[in-house]
Amino acid sequence: MNFGEALKAVKDGKNIARENWNGKDQFVYLIKAQELSTGLHYGFGEYSGEPRFVDVLAIKTSKDDIQVGWLATQTDMLSEDWHIV
Questions:
Q1: How far apart (Å, rounded) are the C-alpha atoms in residues 29 and 68?
Q2: Which of 19, 39, 56, 65: disulfide with 61, CB 3.0–4.6 Å?
Q3: What are phi and psi of 33, to 5 degrees?
Q4: Residues in contact with 22: Cβ distance below 8 Å, sequence separation at least 6, in sequence order
Q5: Which residues lie closer than 8 Å to 34 by C-beta, 6 or more apart?
Q6: CA–CA distance, 9 with 43 (Å, rounded to integer)
Q7: Are 73 and 9 in contact (CB under 8 A)?
Q8: Rounded distance, CA 79 to CA 72, Å?
Q9: What is the pLDDT, as a whole number, of residue 24?
Q10: Ordered per-residue pLDDT tens for the chain, 85 residues
Q11: Are 67 and 58 in contact (CB under 8 A)?
């Protein structure tokens, strides 16, 4: 699938990956703002001036690390080899 279809899938709660990524077992997923607020006990926006979290993309790397704030490259955005994992 293309990147637009992959983004829709990740917004629907699916994990996505590219067939041609070098690292095995990598995938991108969405972390909802509410999950961050709950986990960190902060960012609910209940106090005047308190910042709130927004939804973010994260990647589980082939080294079993989680990188929060994943950004697609131009190659990622133009690729047609996205799939749901």
A1: 10
A2: 65
A3: -55, -40
A4: none
A5: 53
A6: 26
A7: no
A8: 11
A9: 85
A10: 999 999 999 999 999 999 989 888 999 999 999 998 888 888 777 778 888 889 999 999 999 999 999 999 999 999 999 999 9
A11: yes
- DSSP states of the chain: --HHHHHHHHHTT--EEETT-SSTT-EEEEE-HHHHHHHHT--BS-STT--B---EEEEE-TTS-EEES----HHHHH-S-EEE-
| 73, two tokens | 């490259």
Measure the CA–CA gap between 53 and 20, rounded to whole angstroms: 32
Query: Of 77, 84, 79, 76, whose CA–CA distance to 30 is shortest?
Result: 84
Dihedral sign (CA 36, 42, 48, 51): negative
Q: Domain map of the chain by residue range? A: 3-84
